[in-house]
Structure formats: C-alpha cells, structure tokens
C-alpha cells in the first residue's frame, strides 16, 4: 500500500466506507435470492407494517439524487464550476441510506401481501429496478468518497451518478405505474400531445382506408382484441402471462404457449378460450366483462384459418360471404365508437367507466379520501381499501358504498368495525375477486353471502370468528384460489379436509 503521506490527499482513504458499501451491495443482491418468490403464507404483521413505509421512504432518495444531479450538472457545465460542486459526502450518504431502506421496505411489501404481486411482471421489474438503483447508488457513493480523498478527476463518479439517476427514473416509473396506472401522467394530456405519444392507437376508428387496402390484422383483428381483451392482457397487467397488444406477443403467447396458431383457428388458444361455454371459468373474456360478439369471433377465426398473416391486406384474402357480413357489422360497431371525439377517454366506451359511475366514485372519494379508486383508466372496476379508515369504518358508513358495490373488484375491510351486515350488502358485488375481512366481527353468517359471489378468488378471514362448519361450505366456490384462516378456530384437521375438497385453493392457516 502506498504511504498515505507520500501523495497530496485531502482526507483519509475511505477503506472503511468502501468495505461497508460493498457489504451493503452484497446484502442487497442476496435479499431476493435468499427470499425467493413471494408465497401465499401469511406474513407476520410486522412485515406489512414495515413494508407500508415503502411509499414514504422511496421519495427521499428521489429528492436527494435529483438535487445532487443538478449540483453536478452545474459543476460540470456551469460558469462558476469551482463553486457549484459539492464537497460533502453527507447528502449522498443520506440518499444512499434512504434508497437502501426504501428497497428493503419495498421488498417486505412485496412479500407481505401474500403473493399478491407474485404474478405481476411490472412489480417484478420494479423490484429489480429498485435494487439495481440502490446498488448503483452505493457505488456512486464509494466513487465520490475516493474522488474526494484522492482529489481525483470526478468523471467516473459523475458518470455513475448520471447512470444511477437514469435507473432511478425507470424504477420509479414502474412503481408509479403500479399505483396510479401507466397512463396516469398522460390521461388528461391535450389531444395533440396524446397523438405525439401515440396513445390513441388501437381505439376503434372508422376505417379511413378503402376496405380493400385495410391490413386485416392491424385494421380489423387488432382493434377487436383491443376492445375485448387487451385491458387484461397488456404490459402492466398480463393475465395468464399473456399480452395481446402486438402480433409478436400473440405468437409468443402466455403460460400455456402461443396464443395463436397460423392456419389453425381451432388450435389457437385465444379461440379455444372464446369458444368455451360462457359459464366456464376459463371462458374469455371472463365473466363480468361484456362478451365478445359472435361476428367478432368469426372474423378472428377466419383470419387465423387463412394463415394469420400480420401484413396481408383484405384484397389479398378470399372473403366468404358470411365473413363479409361479419365485417359489415364490425364496421358499424367501429363507427359507433368513433362518433365520440377520438382521443377522448370516452371513445373506448366498452372498456372505460361511464360518466355516471365516474361521478359516483368521485363523490364517494371525497368522503373516503384515497380509499376508492378505479383499477385502471380503462377499467370500470373499482377497489376499496379501508387501510386509512380502520376503526372509523362501521356498517353504517360502509352502507354509503352501495352504488359502487356492483363494480367492486377488490375490497379490503381489514380491522374495521364492519359485521355480517356489511357483508350481506355484498350480495350485489358480482365482480368481486378479492375480499379481506381480517380482524373484523364477521362470522359464519357472512360465508353464506360470499358463496353467492362466484367470481371470488381470495378471501381473508384472519382473526375472525368463522368456524370449521362455516368454512367447509366454501368448497363449493368455483374460483377460490386463496383462503386465509390464520388465527381462527378452524382446526388443522378441518383445514386438511377442506384442502382435499378444493385442491386448487391455497389455504393459509398458520399451522
Ligand atoms: C377481465 C380481464 C380479462 C379479459 C378482458 C380477458 N382476459 Fe384472458 N385471462 C384473464 C385471466 C385472469 C387469465 C388467467 C387465468 C386463466 O388462465 O383463466 C387469462 C388467461 C387467458 C389465456 C390463457 C393464457 C395462457 O397461456 O395461459 C388466454 C388465451 C386468454 N386469456 C385469452 C383472452 C382473450 C382472447 C380475451 C378477449 C376475448 C381475453 N383473454 C380477455 C383475464 C382476462
């Protein structure tokens, strides 16, 4: 090692900081590797308690890094270079420490919510983006410490800093997309800006091209899928790991392989799903969504059977007369959709919430700030979470939600004062998928109501008075994938019996 006194240095060499920095990097990398994917087992409350700090903590490094970025840009390009830079390590240290804490909290959030994010590619990418940012931040910090100690050229440090901020941008964008929907920033953008960003593609439009010039996939098939399927099969919501927003992604397919087989409609997964009886669990689009019209299905099948070419024009196909009729019907549907100003959210009539529902939700949001939100801009489904209300929510206040119950997809009433009476009102919540009744006064009486909600996929009875006799009835629920019975009187034997009756459902009982 070079003698410290032999070269001009301003500070002691930061071996200590470097060591701990690298240790932190090792810990960050090890965290997801050791923990694996989030499972269904109920996490202790402390995990969720700490996890819920994520949305708070994450803003600290963003502020700090943006500030330092501007300082360094000033130092690099500004006129008074010497004064612009920052010779102190503390701000960066603060930024790095808060980034690490934010990542840890985010990780606990990911795992604490019982696998809710387990199947969400945006969540996964966000996790890795955040982790990667924290690592880049630590390395930036180490680089700055050495730059200052050696009085060295700050180029390497600055490069790392700019890189870190770039990664931070990506990670934050994914995070924001998950909480607000990917179109949050642009949803009210003026029409010209939406156009520049290419946001109006795929909406039903009157075919402006002469019919023969239409590319069958782009101008006819893709808009049908866009209207009927893409709301659940796209970048940040790829159900069944399937995206349907481009031709390539249809070919790539989902969990069960390619979604389309060129030349063979009958073997194409999308057709198989659309042709299932409407009350089949696997029918697409799922129950609760307006079903796809027969003439739309006919057109898709014809295109697949004719070779599913993504670029061929209508004129190049042989069009049987029943397909001509179907295409004519399709044009009138598209024309009806396009009568609304293009680009206005309302033009996606089938997919988006209508004005009266929006007004009701807006009204109730004033009463329950932050608790009631649409699942996404295109969705007419809503989520209600009583996290911030808890003990303030009782049967009477819950009653005010009556008008939106038919649109509820997720309902979190954990630790509120509601009873079986509120659950009885859920009889009209015919689209409900997830309901959390943990630590409330509900009893077996609620189970009788829930039995009628065949869309339910997840029920949380953690810490309630439900009994073995009551929960046995849930075996009849067709779509139930998760059931939480932790801290109830249901015995391990009863859980075992139930598990046998519903092998597809994960039952979390803590024993
Ligand atoms: C309301 C949301 C929603 C809509 C709309 C929707 N799907 Fe799905 N889709 C799902 C869910 C959830 C799954 C995963 C569960 C399953 O496989 O049934 C899925 C799975 C699939 C799969 C299986 C993918 C695989 O490889 O396992 C196909 C194929 C499919 N959907 C096709 C369609 C088609 C075609 C449409 C439009 C006509 C459509 N979906 C509309 C929610 C939706």
Number of structurally distinct domains: 3
Structural class: mainly alpha
Percent strand equals 5-15%
Shape: globular
String of helices and strands: HHHHHHHHHHEEHHHHHEEHEHEHEHEHE
**Distance from first to last alpha carbon:** 57 Å
Strand order across the biggest sheet? Answer: 3-4-5-6-7-8-9
- What oligomeric state is this? single chain
Number of helices: 20
Which parts are unreliable, with pLDDT below 50 for 5 consecutive residues or more? 1-9, 201-208, 335-351
Bound heterogens, unique: heme C
The biggest beta sheet reads: 7 strands, mixed
Radius of gyration equals 27 Å
Mean pLDDT: 82
- What is the percent of helical residues? 40-55%
**How many DSSP E strands?**
9
List the helices and strands and how they pair.
Elements: H1 15-35, H2 45-51, H3 54-57, H4 59-77, H5 81-84, H6 90-112, H7 121-150, H8 155-180, H9 191-196, H10 216-228, E1 233-234, E2 237-238, H11 247-252, H12 269-275, H13 294-305, H14 321-338, H15 355-367, E3 372-374, E4 382-385, H16 395-398, E5 408-412, H17 420-425, E6 434-436, H18 444-450, E7 458-460, H19 468-472, E8 482-484, H20 492-501, E9 506-508
Parallel strand pairs: 4-5, 5-6, 6-7, 7-8, 8-9
Antiparallel strand pairs: 1-2, 3-4
Bound molecules: heme C.
List keywords for this structure.
binds heme C; 3 domains; globular; 7-stranded mixed beta sheet; mainly alpha
């Amino acid at each position: 090692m070079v003698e410290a006194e032999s070269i001009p240095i301003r500070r002691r060499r930061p071996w200590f900081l470097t060591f701990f920095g690298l240790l932190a990097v090792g810990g960050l990398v090890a965290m997801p590797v050791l923990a694996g994917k989030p499972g269904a087992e109920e996490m202790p409350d402390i995990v969720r308690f700490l996890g819920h700090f994520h949305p708070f903590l994450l803003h600290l490094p963003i502020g700090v890094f943006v500030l330092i970025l501007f300082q360094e840009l000033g130092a690099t390009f500004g006129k008074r270079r010497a004064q612009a830079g920052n010779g102190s390590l503390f701000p960066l240290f603060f930024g790095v420490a808060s980034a690490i804490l934010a990542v840890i909290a985010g990780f606990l959030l990911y795992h604490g919510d019982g696998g809710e994010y387990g199947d969400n590619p945006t969540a996964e990418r966000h996790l890795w983006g955040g982790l990667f940012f924290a690592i880049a931040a630590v390395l930036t910090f180490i680089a700055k410490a050495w730059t200052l100690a050696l009085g060295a050229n700050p180029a390497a440090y600055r490069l790392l800093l700019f890189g870190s901020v770039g990664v931070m941008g990506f990670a934050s964008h994914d995070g924001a997309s998950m909480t607000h929907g990917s179109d949050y920033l642009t949803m009210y953008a003026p029409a010209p800006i939406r156009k520049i960003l290419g946001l109006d593609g795929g909406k039903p439009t009157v075919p402006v091209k002469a019919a023969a010039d239409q590319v069958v996939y782009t101008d006819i098939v893709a808009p049908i899928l866009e209207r009927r399927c893409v709301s659940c099969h796209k970048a940040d919501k790829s159900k069944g790991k399937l995206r349907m927003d481009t031709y390539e992604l249809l070919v790539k397919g989902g969990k069960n392989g390619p979604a389309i087989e060129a030349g063979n409609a009958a073997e194409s997964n999308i057709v198989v799903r659309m042709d299932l009886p409407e009350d089949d669990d696997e029918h697409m689009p799922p129950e609760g969504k307006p079903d796809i019209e027969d003439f739309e299905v006919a057109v898709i099948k014809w295109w697949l059977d004719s070779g599913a070419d993504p670029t061929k024009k209508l004129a190049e196909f042989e069009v049987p007369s029943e397909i001509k009729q179907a295409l004519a019907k399709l044009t009138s549907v598209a024309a009806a959709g396009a009568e609304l100003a293009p680009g206005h959210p309302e033009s996606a009539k089938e997919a988006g919430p209508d004005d009266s529902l929006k007004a009701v939700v807006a009204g109730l949001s004033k009463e329950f700030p932050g608790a009631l939100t649409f699942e996404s801009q295109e969705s007419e489904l809503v989520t209600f979470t009583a996290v911030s209300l808890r003990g303030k929510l009782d049967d009477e206040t819950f009653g005010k939600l009556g008008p939106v119950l038919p649109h509820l997809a997720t309902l979190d009433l954990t630790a509120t004062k509601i009873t079986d009476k509120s659950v009885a009102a859920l009889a009209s919540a015919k689209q409900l998928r997830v309901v959390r009744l943990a630590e409330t006064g509900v009893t077996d009486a609620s189970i009788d109501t829930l039995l009628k909600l065949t869309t339910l996929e997840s029920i949380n009875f953690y810490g309630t008075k439900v009994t073995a006799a009551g929960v046995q009835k849930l075996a009849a629920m067709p779509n139930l994938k998760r059931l939480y019975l932790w801290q109830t009187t249901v015995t391990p034997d009863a859980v075992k019996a139930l598990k046998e009756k519903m092998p597809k459902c994960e039952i979390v009982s803590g024993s």
